[in-house]
Amino acid sequence: MKCIAFFVFLSLLIFKDAPAQQPNVIYDEANVPEYKLPDVLTRFNGGKVKSAKVWYKKQRPEILKKFTEEVYGKVPGKLEISDVKVWETSNDAINGLAIRKQLSLFFKKNDRNLEVNVLMYLPKSQRKAPVFLAYNFSGNHTVYSDPNIRLTESWVNDNPSVGIINNRVTEQSRGSDSESWQVENIIKAGYGLVTVYYGDIDPDRNDFSDGIEPFFYQPNQTHPKYDEWGSIAAWAWGLSRVMDYLEKDEQVDSQKVAVLGHSRLGKTALWAGANDQRFAMVISNESGCGGAALSMRKFGETVQIINTNFPHWFCGNFKKFNDNEADLPVDQHMLLALIAPRPLYVASAEGDKWSDPRGEFLSAKYASAVYQLLGSEGLPIKEMPEVDHPVMGTIGYHIRSGKHDLTSYDWTQYIKFADKFFK
C-alpha cells in the first residue's frame, strides 16, 4: 500500500508540473506575439472616460458586464444564508493570543442543502479586528496545527503525502499547509484570519452535479448555461456570502476585510473584489491566466491551455477565445481596474513563469490609469521592480524569489500593505 501511495503521489507531482512542459508554451519575451490591449478609459462605443462620474455610471458597469458574459459567467439567482451554527468558541487559542471560532453557514433550497465551514482566528487585543478572508485548498484543519479544528468532511483533491486518499482527509493532514498561512504572525500583527475550504462551495472538478450550482438549475438542467458561472464565479459568490456573515459578527471590523487568494483562488479573490465592493482590499498572489496576468500577451499559461486543463473554472463563453485572445473585448488590467479606488496588491514569483510575472505587473500598471482618474496613486512605478523589492502605492506589487507558493515573505508584505490602509 505504501508503494501504491508513493506512485500515486509521484503521478500527482508530475501532473502538477506537466502544464509547464507542454509544447508551444512561450517563456521568452522575444517570442511574445504582438498584441493590442483595449484602453481601460476608452468606452466600447469609442468615447473617452474623463471623469469619475462617467467611470462609475458608464464604463465600470460595462466592463463588469463584459467579464460576466464572456469570462466568468453570471450568477443565475440569489440565495441567502438560511442558518448559522457556531460549533465552538475558544478564548485561549494560539497560546492565549487569539480567539478561535468555528461555525457553519447553511444554504437551503428545495431539497438541497449546503454546509460551508468557517474557521476564524481573531486577536484578543482588539474589540473589532480587521481580517484577511481567504479560501484554503485542502480543509480548514490544514492551515494551523490545532487539534481542535474540525476535519473537513468534503471531497478534497488527493494528496497521499499528507494522508488525503480517496478524496478524504485524515488526521495526518492536520496543519500540513501551515507554512502558507502564518497564522501566529497574522494574529501578532493585529489581524484576524477567516478561512474556508473552497471545495465546500464547489468541489474543484469538472462536475457540476454537486456544490452550489445545482441549487439554481431549471428542470432537466445538468450544467450551467454558456453565460452562467463556472467554479471561479461560484467560489467568488461564496466569499460574498461569508462577507454577509462577517458584517454581523461583532468581533470583526467589516469595513476592513481584505480578500486574498493564491493561484486559482487569487483569480477568485479578484473576481470577488470586482463584484463586491464591500471588500476593502483585494490581494492576488500569483493568480496568472484568468487572474492578474494579461491574456493577450500569450506568455506561459494561455486561455486555451487553462480552458483545456480546467474546463469548469470559467463560463462556457470563455472557450470562444481559445487561441483567439485578440478577440477578447476585455483584458485583465480592466479587471484590476474594477477594484479601484480600493487598495489592491498583485504579487508574482520569479520562478513562476507559468503565471507570467511581467503580465501581472503590466496589468497592475495599466489599471493605474483608473486609480489616478479617481484621485489615488495607483502603482508608484512604471517599470518592474527588482526581485524582492516590493512597491506600495494604492496598488502594491512585488516579484519575489522562489516558486509558485504563498510564503511568509508574501504575508509580510500583505500585512505591511494592510497596515498602510487599515491602521
UniProtKB/TrEMBL annotation:
InterPro entries: AB_hydrolase_fold, GCE-like_dom. Residues 187-375 form the 4-O-methyl-glucuronoyl methylesterase-like domain. The keyword Nucleotide-binding does not apply. It holds the Pfam family GCE_fung. Keywords: Hydrolase, Serine esterase, Signal. It comes from Aquipluma nitroreducens. Residues 1-20 form the signal peptide. The lineage of its organism: Bacteria, Pseudomonadati, Bacteroidota, Bacteroidia, Marinilabiliales. It comes from the Bacteria. GO terms for molecular function: carboxylic ester hydrolase activity. This is Glycoprotein gp2.
